[in-house]
Amino acid sequence: MSFLEGFARTIDRLNETIGATVAWLALPMVLLQFLVVLLRYVFGYGHVAMQESIVYLHAAGFMLGAAAVLLRGGHVRVDIFYSARTMRGKAMTDLFGALFFLVPMAVLIIDVSLPIAIQSWSILEGSKETSGIQAVFLLKSLPVAFATLVLLQGLSMAARAALVLTGRLDTHLSPAARKEGAVQ
Amino acid sequence: MIAGDFLNVALILCLIGGLLLGFPVAFTLAGVSIIFAMIGEVFGIFSFSFLQAVAQRLNGTLQNELLMAVPMFVFMGVMLERSRVAEEMLESMGRMFGTLRGGLGISVSIVGALLAASTGIVGATVVTMTLLSLPTMLKNGYDPKLATGSICAAGTLGQIIPPSIVLVLLGDQLSSVYQQARMSIGDFSPQPVSVGDLFAGSLIPGLLLVGMYISYQAFIAIIRPSSSPALPPLEQEMSKADLLRSLGHSLVPPIILIVAVLGSILAGIATPTEAAGVGAIGATLLAGVRLDERHGWPIYFAGLSLIGMLVISQVMDVRITKQEYVATDWIGIGICILLGLLLLWGIVISLLRVWRTGILRTVVNSTMETTAMVFVILFGAAIFSLVFRGFGGEAAVHHILENMPGGAAGAMIVVMLVMFLLGFILDFIEIIFIVVPIVSVILFKMDVYPFSDPVWLGVMFAINLQTSFLTPPFGFALFYLRGAAPAGVRTGDIYKGVIPFILIQLTMLVLLVMFPEIATWLPRALFG
After folding, report:
1. What pLDDT is attached to residue B117?
2. Does A121 touch chain B (CB under 8 A)?
3. Cβ–Cβ below 8 Å for A90 and B22
């Protein structure tokens, strides 16, 4: 196994593990939302931290899972021409897109979000409500985590595409994407 | 600024080219825009510091409570789909109406309208409907044109019938743009527009469309009986009572769920996010019953407990945040806690069942996939719109639309045509985030009824896009149907089959222009 392939596999495993884990956050999210509604409409009781925890679960779920979704092929493509292309053609699109579209987006998001996250950590920023969750710095770190994981996944995608183009790999799709089939 | 306009035109052309490459839309949007931002920076007509605003946008989006309805509606929709609730509905409706001429096609329209509602992704819905119903229709001698046309139309219709996630997203965009637009023309206390308004506004047009689809199918069944034959009676004839029971069994619970979710939003009792959360748990309970019908009682009890709690909370004072309590309060609270425990028991049983069958894993993973897909597009579109605005694009579009012959009507026609064309390459969600903010602000500022009515505009956009998804040769829905249909179905038949439905859509658009009240009456009646 070449270095590039090992690199791609390591990142894929990392993101798939994170994705398969954070996906489960959806369950406590809907349960808590249901509980909040019940407490409010039946018992007239509101709980700020509980309400806020839904935001945390929701945000963490899709922000940390977005890279895994990329790995699984879940981000929509305009596939009028893409689906008809050969494996090499698809690999070329993926290599080009990963390097020129995805990497700049991830770098930009890290660049603009990191100072805000650091600032928030430095004062351990909490909720505006006194009875809220005092961990807004975690929420504000999510864009950085999101962009970093997506950046890594984009590099894995580019590595696989490069291996296909040089004839050292049969398919540019990661095992996870192949298993999922064409999601969209 | 000439240079800015030039760059914007180049940006849009490159964007279309980039999208057609087939790399995921969200990243293409962002990447092409960033490359152009760099070019703009080099020529001194764009400042990269503009893009700092991306950080605020991201953090704002994360904490947007309304958008939290998206994962919850997806959870609900996928749960209903995976627990075969949709399939069973179609089966029992087919049995009920299938023995009538055209009955199967009509069943498809009704089920599509009901169940496609909660997902909001054209592809997924059309594929599901195709796999579920096309083989049965073809096997029974349906004209492939009529069969595929009905499926495409029904599958795309679900998007614009509330509750659907695209309407949540569209409502979110329209309401913030509307506020800004009203402020900028000197109205400092504009009537706020909510997702509830848009849900209410799209309900009647959506139901009218279903009605027209059904009428068309009935009409064809009468004038060309061979196109939509009745199913042969089953070998073992079911009694009328059994038929009704199976229909009630498969149809009533999901309808109650959808009506409860939609009703609580329209009645102004719950926010869309709250209603979606309740809908997600409701769908889980429904799945729990379906998976083990003989041991459905803990879940029936759970449902009854929920109703009981709601009733008690109306007739007794069970609030637990008061200073003083009287004896009857404690009785009420005690009963509610007991009922709550029963409800919890039912939810736990359901969760165990969906977990053991692997459905829960699929549901949470689909929820994450769809939510991430939607939000990353939102991020990409945010970057695009910052660059587009930085180049003066909004002012340019404003200028063009304002100078259209025919005033607001002319501008509206151009907007509709552009959206229709964009619908060939972009999905609903992308258009909502990219195009809607730019064009709707201008129509709002023109302040001409009905073009500046946010609800009417939202409904027009929705039906326009749905039509675009149906239109050959590029319509989204047709691709998905083609992919899921048996090889024997000719592409030409699919194209011919949707034409009548496109005409129905266009009729609806014309009706909406002539009688805007079709969309605007219900929200006004409900919310004032």
Report:
1. 58
2. no
3. yes
